[in-house]
Amino acid sequence: MNATRHAPILAALAATLLLSGLDARASAASQEAAAPSPELLPFPKATTCDPTKLEPGRSYWASAPISLAPSRTVPATEIQVEAKSIPSREEFVVAEVVSEGGSAWYLVAGRFDHGWVSSARLAGVSVELSEATPVDGCAAGKARVRNSLDEIARDRAALGKAASVKQLVDLDSRIRKLMGTECAAGFLDESTSAALGISTSHWSDEFVYSGKILGEAHEVDPGTSLRSRTLFGTVERYGEWHADGVPDFTAAKNYLREFPEGPFAADSVWILARAYKMAYLLNQEGLDCVSDQLSDVTSKPAGERNAYAKKMAEGYYQQLFRMRRPDEEQRRSYESFHSDGTYYDYCSD
Q1: What is the pTM of this model?
Q2: Does a structural domain hold residue 226?
Q3: pLDDT at position 171, please?
Q4: What is the pLDDT of residue 105?
Q5: Residue 313 is part of which domain span?
Q6: pLDDT band at 48 (very low <50, low <70, confident <90, very high)
Q7: How many domains does one find in the chain?
Q8: SS3 labels along the chain
Q9: Please, which residues have CB within 8 angstroms of residue 207's CB and are 6 or more apart in sequence?
Q10: Are 80 and 99 in contact (CB under 8 A)?
Q11: Which of 188, 220, 244, 302 has the maximal Cβ count within 10 Å?
């Protein structure tokens, strides 16, 4: 009887709730319709730039692909279809600007390719300033380094087999100067990499120079007045596939005996400090990668090897620090020598 008596009240309440729900859905639908769709939001206005006034260090993008020349001396008509290029709408950074008359040449770098393009070639292309902050703050520097290495590779090719020791030593000096810069990293053309003996580090995108050109100079004539430089090519052991990046420690000692104050004396000391450090840290278990060159360690009784290797390493580190101010890599290496030894210089595999 109670259910029958309250039925009208329950029915009215249900109807009220139903109407309230419909009103709420209708209100939400109207609000959603009034809100602008994300796809319909206005796109920020781009800043169109004068192609003769692009600025170094700034990022841009173009409405059409940009064909790149290897140097400013290459006429636009000689740029091949398969040459390097930056796709349309791909952000590129201007690394260098060279003004010539009323026009300009730009050294630019995209995601992969780099090269030169003239303002005249950009005349028919819409170039706009990118408002985004470049992800790689070293992009312009990397482009300059890569371009310089390409130039050195072309100079090496032009010399051919007739290259003199001095010419090769000069090329080697140019390469080493670039390798010491912060932005010596990124993508390098295979032809340049092969010609100069430069690879990319396993642990980062930094360039690693094998010493190829200096090794070639020493092979041409090991007895010139430049021997104090070319002899270091025997330490770096370019061309010995079995070396696996491990220098010749015996050659380093020979270099120091012959040229204790030579241009690569500190480099030889640095190599030996790391060699004895590894002999100390790895002891007998991992000594295989250096033992064939450190017979003075392996010839000791097993119980004396650690103390001897540690003493030798410390001596070479101290000699190095007297010869030059240690850089970050050398500081980390020395700190690991006296700590947990997690920073390996050789035998990292």
Answers
A1: 0.77
A2: yes
A3: 98
A4: 94
A5: 247-349
A6: confident
A7: 3
A8: CHHHHHHHHHHHHHHHHHHHHHHHHHHHHHHHHHCCCHHHCCCCCCEECCCCCCCCCCEEEECCCEECECCCCCCHHHCCCCCCEECCCCCEEEEEEEEECCEEEEEEECCCCEEEEECCCCCCCCEEECCCCCCCCCHHHHHHHHHHHHHHHHHHHHHHHHCCHHHHHHHHHHHHHHHCCCCCECCCCHHHHHHHCEEECCCCCEEEECCHHHHHHHHHCCCCCCHHHHCHHHHHCCCCHHHCCCCCHHHHHHHHHHCCCCCCHHHHHHHHHHHHHHHHHHCCCCCHHHHCCCHHHHCCCHHHHHHHHHHHHHHHHHHHHHHCCCCHHHHHHHHHHCCCCCCCCCCCC
A9: 145, 149, 179, 184, 185, 186, 188, 198, 199, 200, 201
A10: no
A11: 188
- The token pair at 266 is 């500190």
* AA letter at 209: Y
Question: pLDDT tier at 347 (50, 70, 90 boundaries)?
Answer: low
Q: Which amino acid is at 140?
A: A
Q: Which residue has the tokens 């840290």?
A: 281
Instruction: Evaluate whether residue 24 is within a structural domain.
Output: no
Query: 341 and 306 in contact (C-beta within 8 Å)?
Result: no
Q: Which two tokens stand for residue 91?
A: 């952000």
What pLDDT digit, counting tens, does each position of 158-207 carry? 999 999 999 999 999 999 999 988 889 888 889 999 999 999 877 778 89
CATH assignment of the domain containing 97: 2.30.30
